[in-house]
């Protein structure tokens, strides 16, 4: 084992030596990374603390997986490209396709929006089903190996201390079985509580600056059996909050096995309760249509709450000194307020960006890690601005740069007008969706064709 560490540290071993990547964490970011790196390495070893279930079952390391998760359109496009046929497998397993404007009954800014077909189809299923399907697909790939029940505890430096050459880990069963494993590229996909800032300091590197924006949003999710006689004209019912006065929103979403997920959220510390009476009152406050739908369905789980939804960006992309061969992505790099549904898609975009950096370097790995962190910064920026821009509209929100220059004030004024226009103009709504779904950058909302419709109030 130590010989392997030395090989990776010195780059010795010859051009034909099989190359190994280590991926730390087997959740969404880890799975995407393993998939992408399998195209560039002979072996990809995924180290995960949990024992991974065969099917769509919860596990301790990803407590958020019981909350509702939606994969944005950009993420679904990447899924179609990197996991061909998986969408069809998910549908066969009960995932529900839905048109983003045709099948969604949406109340935004207090008004019901018209339903019309957009041709943009998303997929609704549990996070557990999605993750299990991706995992099953990767397990069939001979280049990828999952090592389960191991806790990664630190990094191993290569000679000279300027590169990461491997990791230390122990089996969860006992501290007596500590070991090291070497790799040519090591990827931290350990989630929000990733220890990389401390690990970097142990190797003599500075920790990253952090940006944190917290709108004090709370979630509650409860699963119901969809009513057998349900005859509504929607697959998803969505009530959005309106800053700064109305912090409450909710949705009803279909999952596999005839399940409805009732998810309610309150920003600005208006946390939805998890007790029966409080849950019921919160649902009632979202309006008669929403409440009637919840009342018509039969609960099959208790309400589960979730807090701690701040957006947190560790700016690894800004560090001047960065160790070779070490990469941080996913929630470990930036965790978003989950209400915007961006985390899984940005993890996918980052994994793809890593693959592109490796390809661009012709397979040569030196320099790739620092360039990849900068690429993740770019993949993150648009989503970050969308999430934190919206969160900063709440009076209780903390964090974020104070921005009251002319351009920012114009930006806020324009977005306010645009949100009004979304309610009356289908073209503007489609343009807005493409940005929210991370298919297009926010700058596309300032294109003359969109601006004209927003400002001149085209019918
Ligand atoms: C309430 C909630 C709702 C959300 N809804 C959405 C949504 O609708 N859409 C969306 O795209 N995103 C959503 N997200 C975000 C999404 O869950 C994450 O972005 C996504 O899971 C990617 O995270 P990750 O893989 O980077 O980290 P995580 O999912 O946190 O996974 C980290 C993995 O590392 C393992 N691990 C941790 N430490 C160690 C260690 N020392 N050794 C070995 N293994 C270790 C863990 O067991 C786990 O498997 C939501 C998040 C929350 C909290």
Description:
With 459 residues, this protein is an alpha+beta fold. It folds into 3 domains: 2-61 and 132-210 and 312-388, FAD/NAD(P)-binding domain; 73-125 and 216-306, D-Amino Acid Oxidase, Chain A, domain 2 (2-Layer Sandwich), CATH 3.30.9.10; 403-455, no CATH class. It is built from 13 helices and 22 strands. The protein has helices at residues 2-10, 28-37, 73-82, 86-92, 127-139, 196-202, 276-285, 288-296, 343-360, 368-391, 406-422, 426-436, 448-455; strands spanning 20-24, 43-48, 96-99, 104-108, 111-112, 121-124, 144-148, 150-157, 164-171, 179-182, 185-188, 210-214, 218-225, 236-239, 248-255, 259-266, 298-299, 304-306, 311-314, 326-328, 334-335, 398-399. The strands form 5 sheets. Strands 4, 5, 13, 14, 15, 16, 17 and 18 form an 8-stranded mixed beta sheet that branches. Strands 7-2-1-11-20 form a 5-stranded parallel beta sheet. A 4-stranded antiparallel beta sheet has the order 21-19-12-22, covered by helices on one side. Strand 1 (20-24), helix 2 and strand 2 form a beta-alpha-beta unit. Helix 2 (28-37) runs parallel beside helix 9 (343-360), helix 7 crosses helix 8 and helix 9 runs antiparallel to helix 10. The longest helix is centred in the C-terminal third of the chain and has 24 residues, at 368-391. The structure holds flavin-adenine dinucleotide. Flavin-adenine dinucleotide binds next to helix 2, strand 2, strand 8 and helix 9.
Short note summarizing the structure:
With 459 residues, the protein is α+β, with helices and mostly antiparallel strands.
């Amino acid at each position: 084992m130590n010989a392997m560490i030395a090989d990776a540290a010195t780059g010795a071993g010859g051009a034909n030596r099989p190359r190994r990547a280590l991926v730390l964490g087997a959740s969404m970011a880890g799975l995407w990374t393993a998939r992408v790196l399998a195209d560039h390495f002979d072996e990809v070893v995924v180290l995960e603390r949990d024992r991974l279930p065969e099917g769509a079952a919860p596990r301790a390391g990803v407590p958020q997986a019981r909350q509702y998760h939606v994969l944005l359109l950009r993420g679904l496009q990447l899924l179609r490209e990197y996991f061909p046929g998986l969408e069809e497998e998910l549908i066969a397993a009960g995932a529900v396709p839905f048109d983003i404007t045709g099948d969604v009954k949406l109340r935004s800014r207090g008004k019901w929006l018209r339903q019309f077909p957009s041709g943009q189809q998303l997929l609704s299923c549990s996070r557990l089903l999605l993750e299990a399907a991706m995992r099953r697909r990767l397990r069939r790939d001979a280049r990828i190996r999952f090592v389960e029940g191991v806790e990664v505890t630190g990094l191993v430096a290569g000679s000279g201390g300027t590169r990461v050459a491997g990791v230390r880990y122990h089996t969860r069963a006992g501290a007596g079985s500590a070991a090291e494993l070497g790799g040519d590229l090591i990827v931290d996909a350990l989630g929000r509580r990733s220890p990389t800032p401390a690990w970097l300091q142990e190797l003599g590197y500075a920790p990253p600056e952090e940006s944190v924006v917290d709108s004090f949003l709370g979630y509650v999710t409860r699963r119901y059996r969809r009513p057998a006689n349900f005859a509504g004209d929607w697959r998803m019912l969505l009530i959005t909050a309106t800053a700064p006065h109305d912090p409450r929103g909710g949705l009803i979403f279909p999952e596999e096995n005839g399940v409805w997920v009732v998810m309610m959220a309150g920003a600005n510390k208006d946390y939805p309760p998890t007790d029966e009476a409080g849950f019921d009152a919160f649902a009632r406050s979202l309006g008669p249509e929403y409440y009637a739908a919840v009342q018509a369905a039969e609960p099959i789980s208790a309400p589960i709450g979730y807090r701690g939804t701040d957006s947190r960006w560790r700016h690894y992309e800004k560090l001047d000194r960065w160790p070779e061969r070490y990469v941080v992505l996913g929630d470990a790099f930036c965790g978003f307020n989950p209400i915007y549904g961006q985390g899984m898609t940005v993890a996918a975009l980052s994994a793809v960006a890593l693959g592109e950096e490796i390809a661009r370097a012709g397979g040569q790995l030196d320099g790739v890690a620092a360039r990849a962190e900068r690429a993740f910064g770019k993949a993150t920026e648009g989503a970050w601005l969308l999430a934190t821009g919206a969160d900063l509209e709440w009076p209780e929100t903390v964090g974020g740069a104070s921005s009251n220059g002319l351009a920012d004030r114009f930006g806020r004024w324009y977005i306010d007008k645009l949100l009004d226009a979304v309610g009356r103009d289908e073209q503007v709504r489609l343009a807005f969706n493409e940005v929210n779904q991370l298919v297009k950058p926010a700058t596309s909302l300032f294109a003359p064709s969109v601006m004209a419709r927003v400002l001149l109030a085209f019918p």
